[in-house]
Protein backbone atom coordinates (compact mmCIF):
# COMPACT_ATOMS: atom_id res chain seq x y z
CA UNK A 1 0.00 0.00 0.00
CA UNK A 2 1.11 3.53 -0.76
CA UNK A 3 -0.49 6.59 0.93
CA UNK A 4 -0.13 10.38 0.87
CA UNK A 5 -1.67 13.06 3.14
CA UNK A 6 -1.94 16.76 2.20
CA UNK A 7 -3.79 19.90 3.28
CA UNK A 8 -5.22 22.71 1.12
CA UNK A 9 -6.82 25.98 2.25
CA UNK A 10 -9.96 27.83 1.20
CA UNK A 11 -9.62 30.82 -1.16
CA UNK A 12 -11.70 34.02 -1.20
CA UNK A 13 -12.30 35.59 -4.63
CA UNK A 14 -12.06 39.34 -5.19
CA UNK A 15 -12.96 39.03 -8.90
CA UNK A 16 -15.68 36.43 -8.92
CA UNK A 17 -16.09 33.37 -11.12
CA UNK A 18 -19.77 33.05 -12.03
CA UNK A 19 -20.80 31.11 -15.11
CA UNK A 20 -19.48 28.29 -17.29
CA UNK A 21 -19.11 28.17 -21.05
CA UNK A 22 -18.57 24.38 -20.84
CA UNK A 23 -20.32 22.56 -17.98
CA UNK A 24 -18.52 19.23 -18.41
CA UNK A 25 -14.97 20.58 -18.52
CA UNK A 26 -15.82 23.44 -16.09
CA UNK A 27 -14.61 26.25 -18.36
CA UNK A 28 -15.60 29.71 -17.06
CA UNK A 29 -17.07 32.65 -18.97
CA UNK A 30 -14.61 35.01 -17.26
CA UNK A 31 -11.26 34.98 -15.49
CA UNK A 32 -11.21 35.35 -11.69
CA UNK A 33 -8.78 36.17 -8.91
CA UNK A 34 -8.57 35.21 -5.23
CA UNK A 35 -6.39 35.13 -2.12
CA UNK A 36 -5.61 31.77 -0.56
CA UNK A 37 -5.98 31.63 3.22
CA UNK A 38 -3.48 30.31 5.71
CA UNK A 39 -2.96 26.53 5.95
CA UNK A 40 -3.61 26.59 9.72
CA UNK A 41 -7.03 28.16 9.32
CA UNK A 42 -9.75 26.89 7.02
CA UNK A 43 -8.44 23.88 5.19
CA UNK A 44 -9.21 20.39 3.95
CA UNK A 45 -6.96 17.47 4.91
CA UNK A 46 -7.00 14.47 2.60
CA UNK A 47 -5.33 11.08 2.70
CA UNK A 48 -5.28 9.01 -0.47
CA UNK A 49 -4.11 5.41 -0.56
CA UNK A 50 -3.71 2.74 -3.26
CA UNK A 51 -3.52 -0.94 -2.54
CA UNK A 52 -3.84 -4.26 -4.33
CA UNK A 53 -6.16 -5.27 -1.45
CA UNK A 54 -8.80 -2.63 -2.28
CA UNK A 55 -11.67 -4.00 -4.35
CA UNK A 56 -13.09 -0.65 -5.58
CA UNK A 57 -12.50 3.10 -5.36
CA UNK A 58 -14.06 4.51 -2.15
CA UNK A 59 -14.25 7.85 -0.36
CA UNK A 60 -15.08 9.13 3.14
CA UNK A 61 -15.87 12.82 3.76
CA UNK A 62 -15.78 14.02 7.39
CA UNK A 63 -16.05 10.38 8.50
CA UNK A 64 -19.05 9.47 6.32
CA UNK A 65 -18.79 7.35 3.18
CA UNK A 66 -19.65 9.30 0.01
CA UNK A 67 -20.42 7.99 -3.43
CA UNK A 68 -17.71 8.48 -6.03
CA UNK A 69 -20.32 8.23 -8.81
CA UNK A 70 -20.46 12.03 -9.08
CA UNK A 71 -19.01 12.84 -12.54
CA UNK A 72 -16.70 15.43 -10.95
CA UNK A 73 -14.89 12.75 -8.93
CA UNK A 74 -14.89 10.45 -11.94
CA UNK A 75 -13.35 13.17 -14.14
CA UNK A 76 -10.62 13.85 -11.59
CA UNK A 77 -9.73 10.18 -11.11
CA UNK A 78 -9.78 9.48 -14.86
CA UNK A 79 -7.55 12.47 -15.62
CA UNK A 80 -5.06 11.59 -12.86
CA UNK A 81 -4.77 8.00 -14.12
CA UNK A 82 -4.48 9.17 -17.74
CA UNK A 83 -1.59 11.49 -16.86
CA UNK A 84 0.14 8.82 -14.76
CA UNK A 85 -0.19 6.32 -17.62
CA UNK A 86 1.28 8.83 -20.05
CA UNK A 87 4.21 9.36 -17.74
CA UNK A 88 4.80 5.64 -17.47
CA UNK A 89 4.66 5.16 -21.25
CA UNK A 90 7.08 8.06 -21.70
CA UNK A 91 9.51 6.09 -19.57
CA UNK A 92 9.40 8.43 -16.61
CA UNK A 93 8.52 7.17 -13.17
CA UNK A 94 9.66 3.62 -13.97
CA UNK A 95 9.36 1.11 -11.18
CA UNK A 96 6.83 -1.36 -9.97
CA UNK A 97 5.14 1.04 -7.64
CA UNK A 98 3.64 3.28 -10.35
CA UNK A 99 2.63 0.31 -12.50
CA UNK A 100 0.97 -1.32 -9.52
CA UNK A 101 -0.69 1.90 -8.43
CA UNK A 102 -2.25 2.25 -11.85
CA UNK A 103 -3.95 -1.12 -11.68
CA UNK A 104 -5.01 -0.78 -8.02
CA UNK A 105 -8.04 0.98 -6.51
CA UNK A 106 -7.87 4.14 -4.35
CA UNK A 107 -9.34 4.96 -0.97
CA UNK A 108 -9.82 8.66 -0.16
CA UNK A 109 -10.36 10.09 3.31
CA UNK A 110 -10.99 13.84 3.64
CA UNK A 111 -11.86 16.13 6.58
CA UNK A 112 -12.40 19.89 6.83
CA UNK A 113 -10.87 21.57 9.88
CA UNK A 114 -13.15 24.58 9.75
CA UNK A 115 -16.23 24.97 11.89
CA UNK A 116 -19.23 23.58 10.06
CA UNK A 117 -21.01 26.79 11.09
CA UNK A 118 -18.67 28.76 8.84
CA UNK A 119 -20.61 27.64 5.74
CA UNK A 120 -17.64 28.55 3.58
CA UNK A 121 -16.75 27.17 0.16
CA UNK A 122 -15.44 23.76 1.13
CA UNK A 123 -15.41 22.35 -2.41
CA UNK A 124 -12.48 24.61 -3.40
CA UNK A 125 -10.28 23.33 -0.56
CA UNK A 126 -11.62 19.76 -0.92
CA UNK A 127 -11.00 19.26 -4.62
CA UNK A 128 -7.72 21.14 -4.54
CA UNK A 129 -6.50 18.88 -1.76
CA UNK A 130 -7.78 15.71 -3.44
CA UNK A 131 -6.08 16.50 -6.74
CA UNK A 132 -2.82 17.56 -5.09
CA UNK A 133 -2.71 14.37 -2.97
CA UNK A 134 -3.50 12.12 -5.95
CA UNK A 135 -0.87 13.89 -8.06
CA UNK A 136 1.72 13.21 -5.34
CA UNK A 137 0.62 9.59 -5.02
CA UNK A 138 0.83 8.97 -8.77
CA UNK A 139 3.93 11.21 -9.07
CA UNK A 140 2.37 13.50 -11.67
CA UNK A 141 4.37 16.57 -12.57
CA UNK A 142 3.48 19.83 -14.32
CA UNK A 143 0.33 21.89 -14.01
CA UNK A 144 -2.47 20.13 -12.13
CA UNK A 145 -4.81 23.14 -11.82
CA UNK A 146 -6.52 21.93 -15.00
CA UNK A 147 -7.45 18.73 -13.14
CA UNK A 148 -8.58 20.53 -9.95
CA UNK A 149 -10.74 22.82 -12.11
CA UNK A 150 -12.65 19.77 -13.34
CA UNK A 151 -13.56 18.94 -9.72
CA UNK A 152 -14.78 22.43 -8.83
CA UNK A 153 -13.87 25.58 -10.75
CA UNK A 154 -12.66 27.62 -7.79
CA UNK A 155 -10.55 24.67 -6.55
CA UNK A 156 -7.84 25.39 -9.13
CA UNK A 157 -7.01 28.65 -7.31
CA UNK A 158 -6.41 26.91 -3.93
CA UNK A 159 -3.37 25.05 -5.32
CA UNK A 160 -1.20 28.14 -4.84
CA UNK A 161 -0.66 30.54 -1.93
CA UNK A 162 -0.87 34.35 -2.09
CA UNK A 163 -2.99 35.91 -4.84
CA UNK A 164 -3.94 33.54 -7.64
CA UNK A 165 -5.67 34.18 -10.95
CA UNK A 166 -7.65 31.62 -12.92
CA UNK A 167 -7.29 32.57 -16.55
CA UNK A 168 -10.44 31.65 -18.43
CA UNK A 169 -8.46 30.48 -21.49
CA UNK A 170 -9.71 30.31 -25.06
CA UNK A 171 -9.28 26.70 -26.14
CA UNK A 172 -12.23 24.33 -26.32
CA UNK A 173 -10.30 21.53 -24.60
CA UNK A 174 -9.56 23.73 -21.54
CA UNK A 175 -5.79 23.19 -21.59
CA UNK A 176 -5.24 26.95 -21.21
CA UNK A 177 -7.89 27.43 -18.50
CA UNK A 178 -5.43 27.20 -15.61
CA UNK A 179 -4.51 28.89 -12.33
CA UNK A 180 -1.43 31.06 -11.98
CA UNK A 181 0.13 32.64 -8.91
CA UNK A 182 0.20 36.43 -9.21
CA UNK A 183 2.19 37.14 -6.03
CA UNK A 184 3.31 34.87 -3.20
CA UNK A 185 1.94 34.92 0.34
CA UNK A 186 4.92 37.06 1.41
CA UNK A 187 4.11 39.92 -0.95
CA UNK A 188 1.49 41.74 1.16
CA UNK A 189 1.72 40.35 4.71
CA UNK A 190 -0.23 43.30 6.18
CA UNK A 191 -3.37 42.23 4.34
CA UNK A 192 -5.82 40.32 6.55
CA UNK A 193 -9.24 38.74 6.16
CA UNK A 194 -12.05 38.74 8.71
CA UNK A 195 -14.87 36.27 8.14
CA UNK A 196 -18.23 37.24 9.58
CA UNK A 197 -20.42 34.17 9.75
CA UNK A 198 -23.95 35.41 9.29
CA UNK A 199 -25.68 32.08 8.79
CA UNK A 200 -24.81 28.40 8.81
CA UNK A 201 -27.94 27.47 6.85
CA UNK A 202 -27.47 25.55 3.61
CA UNK A 203 -27.91 27.89 0.65
CA UNK A 204 -31.24 27.53 -1.17
CA UNK A 205 -29.48 27.13 -4.53
CA UNK A 206 -25.90 25.89 -4.86
CA UNK A 207 -23.34 27.85 -6.90
CA UNK A 208 -23.23 25.36 -9.81
CA UNK A 209 -27.00 25.36 -10.29
CA UNK A 210 -27.22 29.12 -9.68
CA UNK A 211 -24.58 30.04 -12.22
CA UNK A 212 -26.21 27.70 -14.76
CA UNK A 213 -29.47 29.68 -14.62
CA UNK A 214 -27.58 33.02 -14.62
CA UNK A 215 -25.70 32.08 -17.81
CA UNK A 216 -28.97 31.25 -19.53
CA UNK A 217 -30.95 34.29 -18.40
CA UNK A 218 -28.84 37.26 -17.22
CA UNK A 219 -27.83 39.81 -19.83
CA UNK A 220 -25.93 41.69 -17.13
CA UNK A 221 -23.77 38.61 -16.49
CA UNK A 222 -22.93 38.35 -20.20
CA UNK A 223 -21.99 42.04 -20.34
CA UNK A 224 -19.93 41.74 -17.16
CA UNK A 225 -17.95 38.75 -18.50
CA UNK A 226 -17.22 40.38 -21.84
CA UNK A 227 -16.66 44.03 -20.95
CA UNK A 228 -16.07 44.53 -17.23
CA UNK A 229 -14.09 41.61 -15.83
CA UNK A 230 -11.18 41.86 -18.34
CA UNK A 231 -10.63 45.51 -17.32
CA UNK A 232 -11.07 44.79 -13.60
CA UNK A 233 -8.61 41.88 -13.71
CA UNK A 234 -5.90 44.18 -15.06
CA UNK A 235 -6.70 46.97 -12.59
CA UNK A 236 -6.80 44.76 -9.51
CA UNK A 237 -3.62 42.91 -10.53
CA UNK A 238 -1.80 46.25 -10.71
CA UNK A 239 -3.31 47.32 -7.36
CA UNK A 240 -2.09 44.09 -5.74
CA UNK A 241 1.40 44.43 -7.26
CA UNK A 242 1.57 48.02 -5.92
CA UNK A 243 -0.11 47.15 -2.60
CA UNK A 244 -2.61 49.91 -3.39
CA UNK A 245 -5.32 49.09 -0.84
CA UNK A 246 -7.71 51.88 -1.93
CA UNK A 247 -8.02 50.59 -5.52
CA UNK A 248 -7.93 46.94 -4.44
CA UNK A 249 -10.71 47.44 -1.89
CA UNK A 250 -12.98 49.45 -4.20
CA UNK A 251 -12.78 46.89 -7.04
CA UNK A 252 -13.33 44.04 -4.56
CA UNK A 253 -16.58 45.57 -3.29
CA UNK A 254 -17.75 46.54 -6.79
CA UNK A 255 -17.15 43.05 -8.10
CA UNK A 256 -18.99 41.40 -5.22
CA UNK A 257 -21.91 43.78 -5.77
CA UNK A 258 -21.93 42.97 -9.47
CA UNK A 259 -22.01 39.23 -8.81
CA UNK A 260 -25.08 39.73 -6.61
CA UNK A 261 -26.64 42.15 -9.09
CA UNK A 262 -26.22 39.46 -11.78
CA UNK A 263 -27.90 36.97 -9.45
CA UNK A 264 -30.85 39.35 -9.06
CA UNK A 265 -30.85 39.81 -12.85
CA UNK A 266 -31.15 36.03 -13.22
CA UNK A 267 -34.65 34.76 -14.01
CA UNK A 268 -36.09 33.60 -11.67
CA UNK A 269 -33.85 35.77 -9.45
CA UNK A 270 -31.33 34.32 -7.01
CA UNK A 271 -30.77 36.11 -3.70
CA UNK A 272 -27.85 35.01 -1.53
CA UNK A 273 -27.54 38.10 0.69
CA UNK A 274 -29.80 38.50 3.71
CA UNK A 275 -30.64 41.54 5.88
CA UNK A 276 -27.54 41.06 8.05
CA UNK A 277 -25.32 40.92 4.94
CA UNK A 278 -26.83 44.21 3.78
CA UNK A 279 -26.33 45.76 7.23
CA UNK A 280 -22.65 44.76 7.05
CA UNK A 281 -22.30 46.38 3.61
CA UNK A 282 -23.92 49.55 4.90
CA UNK A 283 -21.73 49.57 8.01
CA UNK A 284 -18.55 49.15 5.95
CA UNK A 285 -19.43 52.14 3.75
CA UNK A 286 -20.37 54.26 6.80
CA UNK A 287 -17.10 53.35 8.53
CA UNK A 288 -15.02 54.12 5.43
CA UNK A 289 -16.84 57.46 4.98
CA UNK A 290 -16.19 58.31 8.63
CA UNK A 291 -12.46 57.49 8.23
CA UNK A 292 -12.22 59.54 5.02
CA UNK A 293 -10.67 56.61 3.11
CA UNK A 294 -11.38 52.93 2.51
CA UNK A 295 -10.28 50.98 5.56
CA UNK A 296 -12.17 47.77 4.93
CA UNK A 297 -13.76 45.99 1.93
CA UNK A 298 -16.50 43.34 1.96
CA UNK A 299 -16.99 40.50 -0.46
CA UNK A 300 -19.76 37.84 -0.50
CA UNK A 301 -19.81 34.51 -2.35
CA UNK A 302 -22.91 32.42 -2.97
CA UNK A 303 -24.21 32.95 0.58
CA UNK A 304 -24.81 35.64 3.21
CA UNK A 305 -21.44 35.35 5.03
CA UNK A 306 -19.15 38.36 4.71
CA UNK A 307 -15.41 38.24 4.06
CA UNK A 308 -13.72 41.51 4.97
CA UNK A 309 -10.34 42.46 3.50
CA UNK A 310 -8.40 45.01 5.58
CA UNK A 311 -4.89 45.94 6.68
CA UNK A 312 -3.48 44.58 9.95
CA UNK A 313 -3.33 48.05 11.52
CA UNK A 314 -7.10 48.41 11.08
CA UNK A 315 -8.17 45.01 12.45
CA UNK A 316 -8.67 46.28 16.04
CA UNK A 317 -10.71 49.31 14.90
CA UNK A 318 -12.91 47.29 12.56
CA UNK A 319 -13.47 44.57 15.16
CA UNK A 320 -14.45 47.25 17.70
CA UNK A 321 -16.90 48.69 15.18
CA UNK A 322 -18.41 45.27 14.42
CA UNK A 323 -18.61 44.51 18.18
CA UNK A 324 -20.30 47.82 18.82
CA UNK A 325 -22.92 47.36 16.10
CA UNK A 326 -23.50 43.65 16.69
CA UNK A 327 -23.02 43.18 20.48
CA UNK A 328 -21.54 39.76 21.37
CA UNK A 329 -23.60 36.89 22.70
CA UNK A 330 -22.37 33.46 23.83
CA UNK A 331 -23.50 30.44 21.86
CA UNK A 332 -22.19 26.87 22.11
CA UNK A 333 -19.00 28.09 23.75
CA UNK A 334 -18.02 30.06 20.61
CA UNK A 335 -18.10 33.80 20.58
CA UNK A 336 -20.86 35.01 18.34
CA UNK A 337 -21.56 38.62 17.53
CA UNK A 338 -25.34 38.85 17.44
CA UNK A 339 -25.50 36.03 14.97
CA UNK A 340 -22.07 36.74 13.52
CA UNK A 341 -19.09 34.57 14.27
CA UNK A 342 -15.84 36.37 13.60
CA UNK A 343 -12.72 34.63 12.37
CA UNK A 344 -9.49 36.51 11.88
CA UNK A 345 -7.39 34.99 9.13
CA UNK A 346 -4.04 35.79 7.59
CA UNK A 347 -3.35 35.15 3.89
CA UNK A 348 -1.58 31.82 3.42
CA UNK A 349 1.99 31.59 4.64
CA UNK A 350 3.83 28.35 3.84
C1 LIG B 1 -19.28 32.56 -5.83
O1 LIG B 1 -16.22 26.74 -7.77
O2 LIG B 1 -18.14 26.29 -6.19
O3 LIG B 1 -17.52 31.31 -4.87
O4 LIG B 1 -17.23 25.16 -10.54
O5 LIG B 1 -19.62 24.67 -10.19
O6 LIG B 1 -17.94 23.84 -8.52
P1 LIG B 1 -18.31 24.92 -9.54
O7 LIG B 1 -18.51 26.26 -8.68
P2 LIG B 1 -17.66 26.85 -7.49
O8 LIG B 1 -18.13 28.40 -7.59
C2 LIG B 1 -17.61 29.39 -6.77
C3 LIG B 1 -18.31 30.66 -7.06
C4 LIG B 1 -18.00 31.80 -6.10
C5 LIG B 1 -17.03 32.78 -6.73
C6 LIG B 1 -15.57 32.39 -6.75
O9 LIG B 1 -15.08 31.67 -5.87
O10 LIG B 1 -14.88 32.89 -7.68
UniProtKB/TrEMBL annotation:
<dbReference type="Pfam" id="PF22700">
    <property type="entry name" value="MVD-like_N"/>
</dbReference>
<keyword id="KW-1207">Sterol metabolism</keyword>
<dbReference type="GO" id="GO:0005829">
    <property type="term" value="C:cytosol"/>
</dbReference>
<comment type="similarity">
    <text>Belongs to the diphosphomevalonate decarboxylase family.</text>
</comment>
<keyword id="KW-0153">Cholesterol metabolism</keyword>
<dbReference type="InterPro" id="IPR020568">
    <property type="entry name" value="Ribosomal_Su5_D2-typ_SF"/>
</dbReference>
<dbReference type="InterPro" id="IPR029765">
    <property type="entry name" value="Mev_diP_decarb"/>
</dbReference>
<protein>
    <recommendedName>
        <fullName>Diphosphomevalonate decarboxylase</fullName>
        <ecNumber>4.1.1.33</ecNumber>
    </recommendedName>
</protein>
<keyword id="KW-0753">Steroid metabolism</keyword>
<feature type="domain" description="Mvd1 C-terminal">
    <location>
        <begin position="193"/>
        <end position="350"/>
    </location>
</feature>
<keyword id="KW-0152">Cholesterol biosynthesis</keyword>
<comment type="function">
    <text>Catalyzes the ATP dependent decarboxylation of (R)-5-diphosphomevalonate to form isopentenyl diphosphate (IPP). Functions in the mevalonate (MVA) pathway leading to isopentenyl diphosphate (IPP), a key precursor for the biosynthesis of isoprenoids and sterol synthesis.</text>
</comment>
<feature type="domain" description="Diphosphomevalonate decarboxylase-like N-terminal">
    <location>
        <begin position="8"/>
        <end position="179"/>
    </location>
</feature>
<dbReference type="InterPro" id="IPR014721">
    <property type="entry name" value="Ribsml_uS5_D2-typ_fold_subgr"/>
</dbReference>
<dbReference type="GO" id="GO:0006695">
    <property type="term" value="P:cholesterol biosynthetic process"/>
</dbReference>
<dbReference type="GO" id="GO:0004163">
    <property type="term" value="F:diphosphomevalonate decarboxylase activity"/>
</dbReference>
<dbReference type="InterPro" id="IPR005935">
    <property type="entry name" value="Mev_decarb"/>
</dbReference>
<dbReference type="InterPro" id="IPR041431">
    <property type="entry name" value="Mvd1_C"/>
</dbReference>
<dbReference type="InterPro" id="IPR036554">
    <property type="entry name" value="GHMP_kinase_C_sf"/>
</dbReference>
<keyword id="KW-0067">ATP-binding</keyword>
<dbReference type="Pfam" id="PF18376">
    <property type="entry name" value="MDD_C"/>
</dbReference>
<keyword id="KW-0456">Lyase</keyword>
<dbReference type="GO" id="GO:0005524">
    <property type="term" value="F:ATP binding"/>
</dbReference>
<keyword id="KW-0756">Sterol biosynthesis</keyword>
<keyword id="KW-0444">Lipid biosynthesis</keyword>
<dbReference type="InterPro" id="IPR053859">
    <property type="entry name" value="MVD-like_N"/>
</dbReference>
<keyword id="KW-0547">Nucleotide-binding</keyword>
<keyword id="KW-0443">Lipid metabolism</keyword>
<dbReference type="GO" id="GO:0019287">
    <property type="term" value="P:isopentenyl diphosphate biosynthetic process, mevalonate pathway"/>
</dbReference>
<comment type="pathway">
    <text>Steroid biosynthesis; cholesterol biosynthesis.</text>
</comment>
<keyword id="KW-0752">Steroid biosynthesis</keyword>
Amino acid sequence: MDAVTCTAPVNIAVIKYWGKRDEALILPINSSLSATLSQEQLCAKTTVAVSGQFTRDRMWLNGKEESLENPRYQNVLREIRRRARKRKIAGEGKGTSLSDALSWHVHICSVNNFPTAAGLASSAAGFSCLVYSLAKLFRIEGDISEIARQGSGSACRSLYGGFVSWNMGEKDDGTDSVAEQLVTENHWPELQILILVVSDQKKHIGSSAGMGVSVKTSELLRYRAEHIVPRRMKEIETAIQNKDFQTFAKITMQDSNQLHASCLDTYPPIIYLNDTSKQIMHLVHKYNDFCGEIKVAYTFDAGPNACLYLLEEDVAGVLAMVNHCFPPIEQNGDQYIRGLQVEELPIQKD
